[in-house]
Each structure stands twice: as structure tokens, then as C-alpha cells.
Design brief:
The complex is a heterodimer. By secondary structure, chain A is mainly alpha-helical. Helices cover 75% and strands 0% of the residues of chain A. The two termini of chain A are 13 Å apart. In chain B, helix 4 packs parallel to helix 7, helix 8 packs across helix 9 and helix 10 packs antiparallel against helix 11. Classes of the chains: A mainly alpha, B mainly alpha.
């Protein structure tokens, strides 16, 4: 296990470096000068040249990348152009809210997905299966930002049960675990949970169907095992793949939260990314994407290791 | 018994054996859900294509005195938007841009990804490593984040949104194409083609392409639904189409402020995205099971 874990960690290093390279290059594919947002429109040539050398944009790209990476490793992702505050602290504060949203959504989406998937796979081709499969297809086909709007229309505008936007009284800094604040989490969490619900349902349904058609299940039944015991074997065999899919989905929820956070003005990393894009705040854009991508890589690593821990066959391949 | 097999033998040359694609076509035509989806998609495509000849209101012509009319208002069957423009006309015209920016990235990625995957899978060795490790890097980003990162860096615009979505889908299709190609490469008929002197280009084009295209095609049709949602999503964020162009994602964005006045009109563009997306998903599922002849 230790050998496998260290091998996986070593394999992640080049991925992390390439991710950093992509994030670094993002700023350089922008049309025009990366300084365009800081420079006043009537800036003189000298001022432009001065700023360019102050930010290091006059050096060769590989040198710039080396310096940027060195500072990034030490936790310095530069300062936000809009607020002047360090990018890392801005991003980490926002990521906390996104993690909270993602975990709430995961609890809803994974529970329903596992439940629907197991039932649909077990009672394949019955009406229960058809209902669960329709839910799953709808879940993966819904434009989730639109679902967010529809939920706001129903529960905020028409019924006036839940708030439409924001993170509760006092904004993002005054979060507390009471209903006063939690009610702001309900609609965004339900909206976020729909895609993972659909994907987990489809995966688990297919897995359950495959496992039930294998010979060993026949053998278990022939041995006279009760259906509940057979079911336990099904779950055990489905667990590694289901876990991998759920890990990936959690990563997508963390990284892909921008649309939902925009709809609900939820003060997470997605909303931060949105403002970074529209204020042309390139250091903030770069830093947010880097942090989110690193979270995603780390999550994938953890899932791989966890998968190998519960299924020893994976280590050998 | 023997008489029967005799007649069967004699009858055999008269009717040509059905080919693979003919069988797949016959199976998909029997699938009610897939056919219903295909009909809905054809209707949406046809109305978008024929929009100028459908005697619709001008999708750009607004009026301050008839803003945000409800669904069913005489003269405006689906109401009007926040600038008083006819929703029915805008939804139908909106299909033109929405379908193009949603589907074009998948077509481009299909061409590029299939070529890359075919070469990587067939040539193998260092070239395979180079292509597939590059693909791995893009897999280190959640696809929504990657699309938004590239679009955000390039700036708003239709072309940039198509480019960014193409970049998101190329790695996914390359991976599928590579694994299918690797599976076919070592089959006997490829070996035979090579032994009879066919060069790598000929083997890839004549012998491999037809055998790998099916699974990649099915995978790509499945991506169209995601692509539609993401493309409209980029416009929804303000990164795609610019106003006053009718496009479903952008319409959803500009109507967001109207949810307190006329909520159901505001939700209409999203219903269009949902309809196209779910039809492509169901049709792609139908194709997948129709192509799986073994069952």
C-alpha cells in the first residue's frame, strides 16, 4: 500500500507542474498586454515600460514562469488588481464557501444517486427502474443554472419560502450553522446536487446490473444465501468504481461552481472567478484557477489511494 | 427439415445480407424514445433554419410599451422579453446561434480528437506518450473550469467560446479514440493489411477508420448535450454571444431580472436548452444500445 501510494504521489508531480504551466500561460493567451487592466488609457510609453519591468513582463517567458512558480510554491500568487489584497487569501476564503456548498450538494446528490442506482439496477426493466432512469437522464440534461432560476421562481418568488440570493445576514464573513443562515444554502445545494445525482444513478445502475449478471452471484444464490446477503456482495463489488465516480463528481462541483454561484450570488470561488473575469483581474483569475485545479488533482489522488485501499486488485495493475 | 434448409440456401443469394449500419438503423427506428427525440430535434433544427420564412415577428424589434407580456397575450403567443421583443420569434431565431455554438465545438473536437487518437493509438511509442500525457494535463481540470478559464482569458465572443469548448472536448475524444484504436490495431486483419504492403496512412484510413469511428461517434453525440449546456452557460455568464443577438443562454441572462415580474417567460429559453440537451442524451443512449448488436 505504501509503495502504491508513493508511486501515485510521484506520478502527480509532473501533472501539478503542467497544471501550473497552463495557468501561467492563461495570462499570456489574453489578447493585448497583460497590463491592460492596470494601465490607465492615457499612460505614456515610459510608464508602460516601467510597469512592464516592475511586473517582470519584459523578461523571457521561461524565466517569468520560473519566478512565478517559485513564488507560487511559497504561497505568493501576487495581489489582486481590483482589491490589492493577496490572491491566495482571497481565494482560500472563497473556496471555504464553495467546499461547504459542494459537501451539502454531495450529501443530497450521492445519497439519492446511490439509492436510485441500486434500486434501478436491482429491479431492472421494471417501472421503478424506468422512473429512476428518467430522473437520472433529466439530471444530466438539465442546464443547472436554469434549474436554479426555476427553483428561485418557485420557492422564492411564488411561495416566498426560501431566500433567492446571498449567504445570509452579515454576508459571507458572518456564517453560522443556524437556520437563519442554512436556509440560504438550500436552493444552491439542491441545484448543485442534480448532476451528480444523475451520474451516480447511471453508474451505480449499470454496475449493479453487471454484477448481478455475473456467475458468482448465481453461485451465492445456489448456496442458499438470503437476498440481503447477495445484496451485500453487490455493494462490496460496486463500491470502488462508485467511489471513484463520486470523488470525480465532488471535484466537478468544487471546480464548476461558477454558474450556480452566479445565479445565487453565493460568495464562493466561482463568484470570485466571475468577478476576476469581468474586472480583467488576471492575477486573481490565474490564482483561482490554479487553486481549484490543484484541489481537483489532490482529490483525484485521494480517490485513487482510497480505491486501492478498498480494492487490492487495483494496486497490482 | 432438409427441404427447408434447401430453400433457405437457394433464397440466400437473392436477398443481400444486411450490413452493420443497416441493422443499427433498423434497430434505432424501432426505438420509440429515440425516434420521438429525433423528431423533436428535427423540428427545432428545421424551425431555426427556416426562421426567416416562418412569418415571425422581428426578433430585434422591441417596444417600451409592451415589455414583459405574459404567455398567451394576443399577438405574442409566448409573451415578450424585457425590451418588448416577441419571445416566440427570439426563441426560434435563438436556436440558430445556440445550436451552432453548442454543436460546432463537438464536431471540431470529433475531427481533431479522432485524428490525434488514431495516430497516437496506431503509431504508439514516443508519439503516443507525447499525445496522451498532454491529454492527461487537460484532465487535471474540471471541464467547466477549463472552459471558463480559456473563455475568460480570451475574452467574450462567439469564436472564443467555440474555441474554448473545442479545447475542452478534444482531450476526451482523443482518449476514447486512442483506446478504441489500440484495441483494433492488433487484430489480424490489420496485420494482414500491413503484411500485404499497406503503408501506415493507408492502414489507418482504409482499415482502421471505419472500425473505430462508430464508438467515437456515439461518444461524441453524448457530448453534444454537455456542450449545449456549457455553450449556453458561457453566454449566460456574458462570455459568449453579445446582445442584442438572440441566443438562449444570453436571453436567460438578460431575463434574470424579470423573474419577479414575469417568471415563466423568463424561464422559457432554459426550457429550450433543456429540450435539446435531453433529446440528444436520449438519442445517444438509443444509438449506443442499437450499435451494441450482441444484445
Amino acid at each position: 500500500m505504501l509503495a502504491y501510494t508513493s508511486r501515485r504521489i510521484v506520478y502527480v508531480i509532473p501533472i501539478v507542474l503542467s497544471v501550473a504551466l497552463v495557468c501561467f500561460l492563461l495570462v499570456h493567451i489574453t489578447p493585448g498586454d497583460p497590463l491592460v487592466a492596470v494601465l490607465p488609457a492615457d499612460a505614456s510609453q515610459e510608464l508602460a515600460a516601467q510597469l512592464r519591468s516592475a511586473y517582470g513582463f519584459d523578461r523571457p517567458l521561461p524565466v517569468q514562469f520560473g519566478l512565478w512558480l517559485w513564488r507560487a510554491i511559497h504561497g505568493d500568487l501576487g495581489n489582486s488588481i481590483a482589491t490589492g489584497r493577496p490572491v491566495l487569501s482571497e481565494v482560500m476564503r472563497a473556496v471555504g464557501n464553495t467546499v461547504m456548498l459542494a459537501i451539502a450538494a454531495a450529501m443530497i446528490g450521492f445519497t439519492l444517486g446511490l439509492l436510485f442506482g441500486l434500486i434501478a439496477g436491482y429491479f431492472r426493466d421494471t417501472w421503478v427502474d424506468k422512473v429512476a432512469t428518467s430522473f437520472a437522464i433529466a439530471g444530466v440534461s438539465l442546464p443547472h443554472y436554469w434549474l436554479g432560476m426555476v427553483l428561485v421562481i418557485i420557492f422564492s418568488v411564488q411561495l416566498n419560502w426560501l431566500p433567492a440570493v446571498g449567504a445570509g445576514p452579515g454576508g459571507s464573513s458572518a456564517w453560522a450553522w443556524d437556520w437563519e443562515h442554512l436556509r440560504y444554502l438550500v436552493l444552491p445545494a439542491i441545484t448543485t446536487s442534480v448532476i451528480p445525482m444523475g451520474i451516480v444513478t447511471r453508474t451505480v445502475r449499470a454496475l449493479t446490473g453487471d454484477i448481478l449478471s455475473q456467475d458468482f452471484v448465481e453461485a451465492l444464490r445456489a448456496k442458499g444465501l438470503r437476498e440481503t446477503e447477495v445484496f451485500r456482495h453487490v455493494i462490496k463489488n460496486a463500491a470502488p468504481t462508485a467511489l471513484a465516480v463520486m470523488g470525480l463528481q465532488l471535484g466537478y462541483m468544487l471546480g464548476g461552481s461558477i454558474l450556480i454561484e452566479t445565479v445565487f450570488s453565493w460568495p464562493g470561488s466561482g463568484l470570485l472567478l466571475n468577478s476576476a473575469i469581468f474586472q480583467r483581474d488576471l492575477p486573481l483569475l490565474q490564482g483561482t484557477i490554479l487553486v481549484l485545479a490543484l484541489f481537483f488533482v489532490l482529490l483525484n489522488l485521494l480517490v485513487d489511494i482510497a480505491q486501492a485501499a478498498i480494492d487490492p486488485r487495483i494496486k497490482r495493475s | 427439415m432438409s427441404a427447408m434448409s434447401d430453400t433457405a440456401l437457394q433464397a440466400a443469394p437473392a436477398s443481400k445480407a444486411r450490413g452493420y449500419w443497416a441493422t443499427v438503423g433498423r434497430r434505432i427506428r424501432r426505438d420509440k424514445v429515440s425516434m420521438a427525440c429525433a423528431i423533436i430535434l428535427v423540428l427545432i433544427f428545421a424551425s431555426a433554419l427556416l426562421a426567416p420564412w416562418l412569418h415571425l415577428a422581428d426578433p430585434y424589434q422591441g417596444s417600451m410599451i409592451r415589455r414583459l407580456r405574459h404567455v398567451g397575450t394576443p399577438g405574442f403567443p409566448l409573451g415578450t422579453d424585457e425590451l418588448g421583443r416577441d419571445m416566440l420569434a427570439r426563441l426560434i431565431y435563438g436556436g440558430r446561434l445556440s445550436l451552432v455554438i453548442g454543436i460546432l465545438p463537438v464536431i471540431l473536437a470529433f475531427v481533431i480528437g479522432t485524428s490525434l487518437g488514431l495516430v497516437a493509438g496506431y503509431v504508439g511509442g514516443k508519439l503516443n506518450t507525447a499525445i496522451m500525457r498532454t491529454v492527461d494535463v487537460f484532465y487535471a481540470f474540471p471541464s467547466v473550469l477549463l472552459a471558463i478559464a480559456i473563455s475568460g482569458a480570451l475574452g467574450a465572443g462567439i469564436t472564443n467560446s467555440i474555441v474554448s469548448l473545442t479545447i475542452v472536448f478534444v482531450p476526451q475524444i482523443t482518449r476514447v479514440a486512442e483506446s478504441v484504436t489500440t484495441g483494433v490495431r492488433n487484430m489480424d486483419f490489420v496485420e494482414a493489411a500491413r503484411a500485404s504492403g499497406a503503408g501506415p496512412f493507408t492502414v489507418m484510413r482504409v482499415h482502421m477508420l471505419g472500425n473505430v469511428l462508430g464508438p467515437i461517434f456515439v461518444y461524441a453525440t453524448g457530448l453534444i448535450s454537455v456542450s449545449m449546456i456549457l455553450a449556453a452557460g458561457l453566454s449566460f455568464l456574458g462570455l459568449g454571444t453579445k446582445p442584442p443577438e438572440p441566443e438562449w443562454g444570453l436571453m436567460l441572462n438578460t431575463l434574470r431580472t424579470a423573474i419577479y415580474v414575469n417568471p415563466w417567460v423568463a424561464a422559457l429559453p432554459g426550457a429550450m436548452i433543456f429540450a435539446v440537451s435531453i433529446c440528444f442524451n436520449l438519442f445517444s443512449d438509443g444509438m449506443r444500445s442499437a450499435m451494441d448488436i450482441r444484445n
